[in-house]
Amino acid sequence: MMLAAMGIVFGDIGTSPLYALKECFSPEHGIAYSNEALFGVISMMIWALLIVVTFKYVFIVMRADNKGEGGILSLIVLALRSMKCDSKQYFLVMVLGMLGACMLLGESVITPAISVLSAVEGIAIATPNLADAVIPISLLILVCLFLIQKYGTAAVGQLFGPITLVWFLVLAGLGVMNITKSPDIIYAFNPLYAINFISDHPVTAYIVLGAVVLVVTGVEALYLDMGHFGKNPVRLTWLTIALPCLLLNYLGQGALLLSNPNAISNPFYLMVPEWALWPIVGLATAATVIASQAVISGAYSMVNQGILLGFIPRMNILHTSDSQRGQIYIPAVNWALLIMVIVTVLEFRESVSLAAAYGLSVTSTMLVTTILLSIVMRREWHINPIIILCMIVIFLVIDIGFWTATLIKIKDGGWYPITLALVMFTCSLTWYRGRKLLRDKLIVESIPLDGFINNLLAHPPHRVEGTAIFLTPHIDFVPIALLHNLKHNRILHERVILLKLSIWDVPYVAEQDRISVTDLGGNIFLARAVYVFQDTPDVRQVMDQLQPFVGESLELEGTTFFLARDTIVPSDLPGMALWRERLFAWMMQNAAKPSDFFKIPPNRVVELGTKIEI
């Protein structure tokens, strides 16, 4: 499990040595080099890894699991669990969490671009004449990476752990080789170097904070992916392998600069012996592809969770593995990411230029996580408020320091993740609000189920052979598709199932709670199938589970699925701004059809449309 966690969880943070220290002293975004600044910066990097990653995330945040699952969406669910759905507090926390999730999705665009660029830039060190080939080669690698997504990651994933383990061992080896040449750099472990540097040069230290934060990029992956491996393997891997190797490499880069300050142009590759340069470039490229794969897969998982929690429109989701339910592929997300990653590479062209954008995306997510964590600590863990205050103040001071330091780089690239997040946030909030308006409108205009069924059975229409399954959004009201069928076709199938597909805000549900069926009489059944936000609903599986309850076998060939297809008409009615209603209508029109999303065979579906003004 530790070896598997190496490739998936630590690929992103493991590639930070390629660009973090270089960015701290870059002429565009960093500070001027001096030995005093070097010891201060290395000390800040060391303690960022120890406090932010080790103490905050590994020992504290990872405790906030939703039945074993982590990630910011799980944290949102935990924070909202004890709040009233119609309260302002609920809405504010939900909005804050959605904004953090959108910033994390923005990382899925920036991580592949900066990681692959920083690795391929080693070519310019090995052979300066090939400097112009960095962009084309990076784009080629990225395009190939996204093209193979539809085939799944199971086979390639078996290589992730060993390659990443070799990468970390190489990081440690390179660090040790250079530390032996300038062992004084070990004194940077003393936090007084960081404290004195901050107190003596507050403005300079504040500026460099925006680059120091790059050493913790990928920290959210520790929390997001812990559900795949468990807390203990992730914690042990970090403490015994990843953390020591990263510390040794950063110290080694610092030792190199002590002996050769001119190496600041690219301290990682200039610490590599000339004979090993090309193999290290190849290994670094493989490591960055793995890191990119991890965030791409994470984006699929987050979008899937967002769809099931009602934050994102339905999309076609393909499963790439018969045995691993978490291995999914979402074509719309894949191609959108590819286009944005290509635009990112062409716009910024260098890893140093992208670092400013990357830092703001990372720090924003960290800040939101801290705020949500404070709510969970109080409402779910019931920890003493004084202890919470002390811990959260420490975390907030660090997070706000990092966040504001990256804000000053908005014009240098920080605008990019903000733009990405705001676009996604606007769409998500519009979708969430639009669905609530639509749901409220349908409830007002719907007919209560109990009285309707009694009247229907008292005066039954002509009944025909076969089974009809009507998908319904609410178990207390008559499905619109059933009303349309009775109104226009004037028939009722010999067996009718009103099916509600529910999404619970938990990662797992017991098998006995999956299906519940109520016999309404007259061979009419009300069924509820429960899914969790990690699953993708599949009505064919539901049919198999329904058979024991309805008394007869359910054959797909004799079953017709009736779905309502809502067409949204923007209007001046109270609700959202007209432009948001138009955006919601466009998203409804382009969302995946319920038949596709719920895996219903197209030749067994009847869609009955209706227009609804909101």
Supply database-style keywords.
8 strands, two-stranded antiparallel sheet, 614 residues, 6-stranded mixed beta sheet, alpha/beta, single chain, 25 helices
Tell me about this structure.
This protein has 614 residues and is an alpha/beta fold. Helices cover 61% and strands 10% of the residues. It has helices at residues 2-9, 11-14, 20-24, 35-60, 72-80, 88-120, 122-126, 134-147, 154-179, 191-200, 202-212, 219-224, 226-229, 231-259, 267-270, 277-308, 331-348, 351-379, 385-407, 415-445, 449-458, 480-489, 539-550, 578-590, 594-597, and strands at 318-319, 328-329, 462-471, 491-504, 515-521, 524-532, 559-569, 605-613. The strands form 2 sheets. The protein has a 6-stranded mixed sheet, with helices on both faces. A hairpin with a 2-residue loop joins β5 (515-521) and β6 (524-532). α1 (2-9) crosses α9 (154-179), α6 (88-120) runs antiparallel to α20 and α9 (154-179) packs across α16. It starts with a helix and ends with a strand.
Mean pLDDT: 86
In this structure, how is the largest beta sheet organized?
A: 6 strands, mixed
Beta content = 5-15%
Low-pLDDT stretches: none
Oligomerization status of the protein chains = single chain
Number of helical regions: 25
Strand order of the largest sheet: 5-6-4-3-7-8
Q: Specify the overall morphology.
A: elongated
Please give the share of residues in helix.
55-70%
- Overall SS class: alpha/beta
Give the N-terminus to C-terminus distance in angstroms: 50 Å
Radius of gyration: 27 Å
**Strand segment tally:** 8
